[in-house]
Amino acid sequence: GAVVSQHPSWVICKSGTSVKIECRSLDFQATTMFWYRQFPKQSLMLMATSNEGSKATYEQGVEKDKFLINHASLTLSTLTVTSAHPEDSSFYICSATGTSGSWEQYFGPGTRLTVT
Amino acid sequence: QKEVEQNSGPLSVPEGAIASLNCTYSDRGSQSFFWYRQYSGKSPELIMSIYSNGDKEDGRFTAQLNKASQYVSLLIRDSQPSDSATYLCAVTPNSGNTPLVFGKGTRLSVIA
């Protein structure tokens, strides 16, 4: 149990375009999802916390107009990188916590974004 | 500022030995403690969770928690080359709706 999927697993896009990344909880309902970014050889950086049906809470320094997060259902959250630039190239990972009372967070496999 | 500190390593141990990974945290109100394993280029994988003082064993892994000392550790017995990865300590104050605070991770290398 506690499987989280992400799609796509990797994506290459041109500078100035937008990219949408999906995060799904496959076998549980995720009340809260978290979005992280990780640059090579660096630690995870929390970007935002997403609760189903409400606006995401962004960490300091993360542009909410650039990284659009939607958590429309208990099994799906999306991250859209708008007007992507090469410096947005990174490994984007979501995690989810469920409604079962477990405090554990489960990570998706990540999406590697390359902006050319 | 909530902080989680880990030695970055690399920690090198021979195959079959015990690997000991340590973590300290600054928020005395922390309630939940987790160890994640992250292979290069992959996302973190939850391997242990611990919520109360003492030891918790799961196969070759033992997590130890000492809230008075604000210290949590992970022991890996009979280390295997496949255990070579970065181990992330994560702490959260209370419920699962709270973001994890991660340490920067300890890189473990098990030498065959």
Count of DSSP H/I helices of chain A: 0
Strand content of chain A: over 45%
The helix-and-strand class of chain B reads mainly beta
Determine Rg of chain B (CA atoms, Å): 13 Å
Q: Whole-Å distance between the termini of chain B?
A: 40 Å
Largest interface: A-B, 22 and 25 residues
The general outline of chain A is globular
Overall mean pLDDT of chain A stands at 92
The count of β-strands of chain B is: 11
How many helix segments of chain B? 0
Q: Helix fraction of chain B? A: under 10%
Oligomer: heterodimer
Beta-strand content of chain B: over 45%
**Protein structure class of chain A:** mainly beta
Overall average residue pLDDT of chain B: 93
In this structure, how is the largest beta sheet of chain A organized?
7 strands, mixed
The low-confidence runs of chain A, each spanning 5 or more residues with pLDDT under 50, are none
Order of helices and strands of chain A: EEEEEEEEEEE
**Distance separating the two termini of chain A:** 37 Å
Pick out the low-confidence regions of chain B.
Answer: none
